[in-house]
Amino acid sequence: MMLTPEIKEIQEKRLLGRLLLTTPGAPEVEMHWKTFVSDIIQHLGIKPSEFYAVHEYDAEFSETGVYKTWATILDDVKYSKLKDVSEVVIEKGLYAIFTHHGPIKTFHRTLNYIHNDWLPYSGYGIDQRRHFDYMGPKYLGPENPLSEEQIYVPIKKITPQ
């Protein structure tokens, strides 16, 4: 697998979402998302075309550690009546942006490549900000082999020792 990221400075993003404490690949994440999307459709009659999965890790990413994840949408007045959501802020900063192609069951391979193959040789280190995934028009669902999802990894330039 060879993924070349786009390195980009992004501006602050304000989102609305629901929090879940979980571990990578845990089955409750899928139910968390289904409930969130269903509530938007049922209570507001709207199906958003863009979603953000926001992740906050205590330290560096770990395939077994507990972390915070939010199912989110852009903060917009049309979502103001949505219940049980809180504001989630993505801080501005430098990100490495990767595109995952395929179903969610292969997502761990992309993360493994990012953290074990690309990052150690990139000249960058993980910055202690929230990570997030963008699911826009090319995201066709978690099982669709043609789905595309952008993975935003917060980075900072490191100086060689």
UniProtKB/TrEMBL annotation:
The AraC effector-binding domain, residue ranges: 3-156
InterPro entries per the UniProt record, alphabetical: AraC_E-bd (IPR010499), GyrI-like (IPR029442), Reg_factor_effector_dom_sf (IPR011256)
Domain of life of the source: Bacteria
Name recorded for this polypeptide: AraC family transcriptional regulator
Species this protein is from: Aquimarina intermedia
